[in-house]
Design brief:
Length: about 230
Amino acid sequence: MGITTLAVLKWAHIIAMVYWLGGEWGIFHTSRHVVNRKLSMEERKRHMETAYIIDIPARTGIILLMPIGLHMGYFWGVQPYSGGYLVGMWCLTALWLAICWAAFIFRESDRGLMLTKLDEKIRFVLIPLMLVAAITSLLGHGPFNAGEMQKWFSIKLGLFAVLLIIGLILRFIMREWTTLFRILAEGPNVEAENRLEKSLRLGRTLAIFYWIGIGTVAFFGATKFM
């Protein structure tokens, strides 16, 4: 029968999901060394650098999951948009990925912070759009089909949007780390250390809900039971 486009998309979707979940797990455990005051600043900066390196494949996976899912949705008949719509979607995704990777490459500079904020602004637009599309589709008003055994797609999209909100908060936390480490590079600063520890506590709590949400999204995608 050969390799189909849908089969390749399924493979890419699995890879993106694995990098997303695995990356967040790695950052969760690496981050505790970032705020460890017993370590030298050089050692802490090394762990922060490791966290950023682990994070970029996860960010890439997150960005790719939406277009891959929408593309597969066309083959499954739950979203009716094809042709130019899919081409445009992938072109915009490529631009978003370029911004994300540029922000990673220049992460230690003001340019990197600016690009990171631009990446965040894209999410400010996409998250409400996805939530509205998911809710209106479940109510029977489109844009996606939500008939019998089709609701899973809109539910999954809505949950993904909620996870992007959590991810956005985690992005804020990592961006704050960069700013705080610039302060700590100038010398000991108790206030900056306290802010680092506070942000880590928040991030670790959110990470638990993040993993539960990722598992739930994967469940709806795998079972398609609604």
